[in-house]
Amino acid sequence: MSQRSTFDLSPPTPQQFDALAAALTADERKVLLDHGTESPFCGVLLTEKRAGVYACRLCGLPLFLAGNKFDSRTGWPSFTTPFDEHHLAYIRDTSYGMVRTEIRCARCGSHQGHVFDDGPPPTHQRYCINSVSLEFVASTDPLPDRLGRGAPEGAVWHDADN
Ligand SMILES: [Zn+2]
Description:
One of its GO terms (biological process) is response to oxidative stress. Keywords: Oxidoreductase. Pfam families: SelR. One of its GO terms (molecular function) is peptide-methionine (R)-S-oxide reductase activity. The protein has 2 helices and 9 strands; from the N terminus they run ααβββββββββ. It has a single domain, classed as Peptide methionine sulfoxide reductase (Metal Binding Protein, Guanine Nucleotide Exchange Factor, Chain A), CATH 2.170.150. It has 162 residues and is mostly beta strands. The site of zinc ion has 8 residues, from loops.
């Protein structure tokens, strides 16, 4: 898998994290910080089809590209591959009597969803992500730069695959 980016993956300071967490809604906090799952078919990103980037709702790190989104009919936004595998943390999750792989933002540690191996070819991966964990950034808009890291954050992301 290609390494797309030169994003600064060092975590937010505790002060930055607290400030960003304080700005979340109750629903966002429940998923991102308390590892909850939103109800299926409630997410506003389900029908989003524009070109762009899906970034972490908390810290703004790009996690998925619109070009890798597909309709899994599960009721959650689903992707076949990450923006950059280094932008995700993969955690073994044995809650609810199941063995699953939890997906977190590799930079801020916020919960995103789970990845399953029943996705479409060629990757056969299904990244099943909560809408409230993500922020859609249209391809014409600059990426968020919530941590003051500078470019490529805060700039429009150009990607040939997207
Ligand atoms: Zn994050």
